[in-house]
Amino acid sequence: MKIATWNVNSIRQREAHVLRWIGQTQPDVLFLQEIKCEASGFPALGFHAAGYKAEVVGQKAYNGVAVLARVPFRVVHQALPGLPPDDAQARYIEVEVNGITLIGIYLPNGNSRGDDGFAYKLAWMDHLVNRAQALLDADIPFVIIGDFNVCPTDDDFAPGSLSPTDALVRPETRQRFRRLLWMGLTDAIRAIHPHRSIYTFWDYQAGAWQRDIGLRIDHALLSPSLAEQLVSADPDKDERGLPQPSDHVPVVIRLG
DNA sequence: ATGCCGGGTCCTACCCGA
Fold it and tell me: Is the C-beta of residue A165 closer than 7 Å to nucleic acid chain B?
């Protein structure tokens, strides 16, 4: 099974990119983040013609996640369990495929709106930890994949490109990411590439792509039994060099 | 130089991203 994630920074701007990419990469399941539209604005017809069924958790202008799949799936959750019911941010989709739970996330950045914004990020991560623990307790194999907005270690961003107070690297953020690892989840990219510097995002500004000033913030975490089946995990770096790219590239994992 | 580009929207000045 081939599972992918891609923060597309507006699906309406990136529809042709995604169509071409799924044609050449043939993922079984692709999670999208920052689609920046409501479900009614999502270009589902084109993806359907390409053999993919879509499920959309949309929001006007900001956030928004979706899943495209060419294998049958069942939608389990359209919001992160534990968040208040009036939370309007579209950042979570959970589906089940063949007894495996697949969770696509767009984790809050945490740099906006001061202390409140950072507290929201940490609370979101706490609920994600709780969801992972519940699935472990139920012995359900699962993948959490998407834009985590976390650089887990100092190897995961270009030297000097982030201040130590940035919400992507702050100790409280990394502590919660480590909690996911310590409960037994495997960081798929790092399991395959333990030492290389690997990025999944390059800012549009200041020639970040040309100077290779990037971040590794898009991740796939695997529960123990799925980690044993991990074959490959790679960002598709070439996408960043194409015309009108997203600032993130796709990440693809293969389970044997 | 935390807003240099590139999305979005109460349509064009301003909010947001990492």
Answer: yes
Does CATH number 3.60.10.10 belong to domain A2-255? yes
**Alpha-carbon distances, residue A186 vs A74, A145, A225 (angstroms):** 24, 11, 10
Please, which positions of strand B sit below 7 A from a protein CB?
A: 1-10, 16-18
Is residue A95 very low, low, confident or very high in pLDDT (cuts 50, 70, 90)?
very high
Which nucleotide minimizes the distance between its C1' and the CA of A244? B6
Q: Which nucleotide is nearest to A13 (CA to C1')?
A: B7
- Condensed to tens digits (0 to 9), the pLDDT of residues A99-118 reads 999 999 999 999 988 888 99
Q: Straight-line distance from CA A215 to C1' B9, in Å?
A: 29
User: Residue ranges of the domains in chain A?
Assistant: 2-255
pLDDT digits (tens, 9 = 90+) for A188-234: 999 999 988 999 999 999 999 999 999 999 999 999 999 999 999 99
Q: In angstroms, how far is B6 C1' from A9 CA?
A: 9
